[in-house]
């Protein structure tokens, strides 16, 4: 799941995030956050995912055809330029929507997982000093419960992000017209 999060963060445009910080938790786990975890946290340098820019026809300043243009071609060029401009605006809005959804889903999820991992670390320390087998078994059982909770949290975050990504696509992609 962490690999998925890393890939996702690298694919999103860096400009959509103010900053992304890579932090180490108390038990050594890696977390990503919009806020610095401590005074030593350094912002990550993310690669921007380049999106090919479509060729945009130059907008005609008048509806009069220029030399070599047939009547009506100037208005077609202007229409094509407007359509490309709208398409680019929709793509930018879609990327922003996905970036905001990513931060709102994975930020709180990472915080909850971090808390669970800290509790597991404390249980691990207690297990190392457990006086008897019965106490050791109780601690192992509780740690297994925390592991299951972490797995559920990752699954829930992934499900929420998939739904949010689809909502962003639905909101910002024009409806496809059926081919005739």
UniProtKB/TrEMBL annotation:
Residue segments, region Disordered: 52-87
Q: Give every DUF4124 domain span.
A: 8-60
- Hey, what's the signal peptide range on this chain? 1-18
KW Metal-binding (keyword) present: no
Q: Where is the composition biased (Low complexity)?
A: 74-87
- What name does this protein carry? DUF4124 domain-containing protein
**What is the organism lineage in this UniProt record?**
Bacteria, Pseudomonadati, Pseudomonadota, Gammaproteobacteria, Lysobacterales
Q: Does the keyword Signal apply?
A: yes
* Organism of provenance: Stenotrophomonas humi
Q: Which domain of life is it from?
A: Bacteria
What keywords sit in the KW lines? Signal
């Amino acid at each position: 799941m962490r690999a998925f999060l890393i890939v996702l963060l690298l694919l999103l445009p860096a400009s959509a995030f103010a900053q992304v910080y890579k932090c180490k938790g108390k038990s050594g786990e890696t977390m990503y956050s919009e806020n610095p975890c401590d005074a030593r946290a350094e912002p990550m340098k993310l690669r921007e995912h380049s999106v090919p820019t479509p060729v945009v026809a130059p907008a005609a300043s008048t509806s009069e055809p220029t030399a070599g243009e047939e009547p009506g071609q100037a208005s077609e060029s202007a229409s094509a330029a407007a359509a490309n401009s709208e398409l680019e605006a929709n793509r930018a809005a879609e990327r922003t929507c996905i970036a905001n959804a990513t931060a709102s889903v994975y930020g709180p999820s990472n915080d909850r997982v971090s808390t669970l991992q800290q509790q597991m670390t404390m249980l691990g320390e207690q297990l190392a000093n457990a006086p008897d087998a019965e106490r050791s078994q109780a601690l192992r059982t509780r740690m297994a419960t925390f592991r299951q909770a972490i797995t559920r949290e990752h699954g829930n975050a992934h499900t929420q992000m998939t739904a949010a990504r689809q909502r962003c696509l639905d909101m910002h992609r024009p409806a496809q017209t059926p081919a005739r």
